[in-house]
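Anyone have tokens for Lipoprotein? Sequence:
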Amino acid sequence: MRKLNLGISITLLIILLIGCTFGNLSLDHAETIAIDFAEEYINENDLNIAISDVKVFDAARNDEHNKWDVYLEVEKETNEFDLSALGWVSVSDEEEVIEYYLWSE
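Reply: yep, here.
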């Protein structure tokens, strides 16, 4: 009887662990996907922006749409607030970029 209970417990634990891996995308992973997408965007559009200057300055979870909105900025030498330095990337729980607004020159 103890072996049966132990077997059931282990099976339930495995199911729980597998179920947790298919949940919401983590913030860290969403930020990584957004930065990678920004790098591709910069390269494809020949923008004069160093990827090392692109930083995440905020992120917000939208559970209704199962996505993270990751807000990016290009760090500049000046202290002036510049809207052209801001952008955002929406990353779904399926690890896909579903919307974005990034820089242009």
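The chain has a mean pLDDT of 82.
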